[in-house]
Write a structure and sequence with these properties.
214 residues; alpha+beta
Length: 214
């Protein structure tokens, strides 16, 4: 799905989920932006842009990796057809944000974080980039070939000098890159205690494997 297939409400909700960078209760959407009707919710879910967790009440919505990439395309793009004056103003602001992203070689994931997270400083951003580079280097050492899966338990052993929280945060950011995937083990019965403990939880899903295409 391209951004041109989104109406104003759908685009706005994706941007709200990007700004929150964490699961959002469906019932709270209307306090942050437009309410998302069920047909549009199903459309975004079926297009792979959002994850809908209906096992909790109220249900929660969260951006997928594809959803993050789509928000990156919305930032600096044209407002959806039939946008209101407020909608056009929002996209004018986003165009300014795009100029900042391009000038600083940043991504939305570098700026938006869950509520309660400390704002990123230059030192913190540099540290984050270093950890992400360490992850890529460790993956290259232990992967059979680019794109193959590596167990996070092996990766943690390679990077034991990095704290658990720093490594988890870096993996959560990296998964938004086009060439990176965090993957749950399909056959949970095969997991050892070490492999279960090494999982990274994103949203409501435990991921045990890492794949980097390049």
């Amino acid at each position: 799905m391209s951004t041109e297939d989104l109406n104003g409400t759908e685009a706005a909700v994706l941007l709200v989920l990007m700004a929150e960078a964490s699961p959002v209760k469906n019932s709270e959407l209307k306090t942050m932006g437009p309410e998302l009707p069920k047909p549009s919710r199903d459309k975004l879910k079926n297009s792979g842009l959002i994850e809908v967790n209906s096992s909790v009440r109220p249900m929660t919505l969260e951006l997928t990796d594809k959803g993050w990439r789509t928000c990156g395309e919305l930032i600096g793009g044209e407002p959806p057809a039939r946008s209101t004056g407020a909608g056009k103003a929002l996209f004018t602001v986003l165009a300014g944000l795009r100029r900042w992203f391009d000038r600083t070689d940043s991504r939305p994931a570098d700026l938006f974080s869950p509520r309660g997270d400390e704002p990123a400083t230059a030192e913190m951003t540099e540290k984050s980039v270093d950890v992400e580079a360490d992850i890529r280097a460790a993956y290259a050492r232990i992967a059979r070939e680019p794109g193959s899966t590596v167990r996070l338990s092996r990766l943690r052993n390679e990077l034991r000098d990095i704290s658990r929280s720093d490594l988890d945060d870096a993996l959560a950011r990296l998964r938004r890159a086009d060439d990176v995937s965090l993957i749950p083990e399909e056959n949970q019965k095969t997991l050892t205690d070490e492999e279960r403990a090494a999982a990274v939880v994103v949203g409501n899903q435990q991921n045990h494997l890492l794949s980097i295409e390049s």
